[in-house]
Amino acid sequence: MIKKFLDKLMGKSTPGTSGGKPHFGKREEVPASVHGINPELVDRRAAEVVATLKQAGFEAYIVGGAVRDLLLGLRPKDFDVATNATPEQVKGLFRRAFIIGKRFRIVHVVHGRGREHEVIEVSTFRAYLDNAAAGQVAGNEKTSKAQLSGMQHAVDASGRVLRDNVWGPQDEDATRRDFTVNAMYYDPVSQIVVDYHKGLQDAKKKTLRMIGDPATRYREDPVRIIRAVRFAAKLSPLGFSIDAKSAAPLVQSQALLAEVPQSRMFDEMLKLLQTGHAIATIEQLKKLGMAKGIYPLLDVAVERADTPFVKAALVDTDRRVNEGKPVAPSFLLACVLWEDVRNGWQTRLNQRQHPLPALQEAIDEVFDKRIGDVSGRGKLAADMREIWVMQPRFEKRVGNTPFGMVMQPRFRAGFDFMRLRADVGEVEEALAEWWQDFQTADDERRDDLMDQAKEEQKARQKAQPVVKRVPRAAPAADPRGLPQGSDAGPVDSDAEFPSEGGAPKKRRRRRRKPGGAGGGEGAAPAAAGE
Fold this sequence. Notes:
Blueprint: H1 2-10, E1 17-18, E2 21-22, E3 28-30, H2 32-35, H3 44-55, E4 60-63, H4 65-71, E5 80-83, H5 87-91, E6 97-100, E7 106-111, E8 118-124, E9 135-137, H6 145-148, E10 153-156, E11 161-164, H7 170-175, E12 185-187, E13 192-195, H8 199-205, E14 207-208, H9 214-220, H10 223-235, E15 241-242, H11 244-247, H12 250-253, H13 262-273, H14 278-287, H15 296-303, H16 308-322, H17 329-350, H18 355-371, H19 379-393, H20 401-406, H21 411-423, H22 429-440, H23 443-463
Parallel strand pairs: 5-8, 9-10, 14-15
Antiparallel strand pairs: 1-2, 3-13, 4-5, 4-12, 6-7, 7-8, 10-11, 12-13
Helix pairs in contact: 10-13, 10-14, 17-18, 17-19, 18-19, 19-21, 21-22
């Protein structure tokens, strides 16, 4: 702070300032008659949070992307609130409120319970501070935990903000937001929109413009690079595009993403692919020259986006999100990486490995190569593995397998995966239709379907050419007294997985009858046909 004071005395300017005086913009209050927001699109619980804060004597507004969407006539999926109340003051006003975060301390106000619950995120107006006056940290979030614990405003050596918890007035809070269309405030009580940076004009012009110097803003928080792509993809159907000045530093700034924690990058990648605009996002990445280099797993998704299977998965994910249906990251990532699993599995089958261990080895190899330690060994990995392991089991429609399959918690995900495979011709359409009927059928119908599957299996076996075994001389015995090539013990003939393209099915060794032709002197020759 001393340095900042000296800079002001000496007339030095700071980023986003001129002659030491920050450009915080001019406050404009836009009435409902001009902005045209439909109050019915505003979430009731978000409006209640604003009203509660205002009744307690604080300023409070709906803020960010929700305001942008409301101005465009869209119903926002999430509502955030900004206020001049501190996190502790906010928490004290609500029965179920929790302070979270270290980099940015915010409050989650929870309404409802179970699946019906909704979280309203409440943040305190933050001051616009010169990063040169912030605490300097040589390491990152992990290596400098002890040093960061006592800091309210800190940056690393590259200028990336690690702590930003200094409260300030609304105009400064608006200046430190990213795009102008995301820096507007809406009061659902008075129905006034507060705009400091011509965000309303940019919304009408359908322009995404970064507040301040774009290169500096990307350096402060490199994730803004990904947010720029995400907003451009989401709003591109409405005709929005990133303005030239904001787009120019994007490619060069990509290198800054290497300093962002991998867990955060993983989450941002999922936002790109699972917010209902996956296809548009990939188009934007290619258009902006950013198809590679953001995140390794995203690179794979972009590279395979034009393949029939992955494209079908992306289209299906967009459809589900836009219909308000849930989507699981494990399903989409399982689709993106299926090519690696399938190829690795086939390679091992060609080496005559047993199908199940071969599949498990192929999956482990893909986890090590593509996902690493980021969420790759927890529930995400378990769900992906279960989806993949189910695929060969769908081929088996006799015995108890079908009944056990439909009882598994992840059956629906595994079936949807197989359904997509059928859509692109990777498995027979009839197989997907059979399982579609079986999972919803009653007991009598299931018996009919099982009989149908058995008949199909017999028909296939009859259609296969009969290979006659040529008589041959008895093979030489090995040191154990067994014929060469025979098994040392019985093997279960009802294998869990089909062996297509892999090791042949092993046969159960016949038991020799005591005192009969199986042993002893004068027994029949071992070779068949003699």
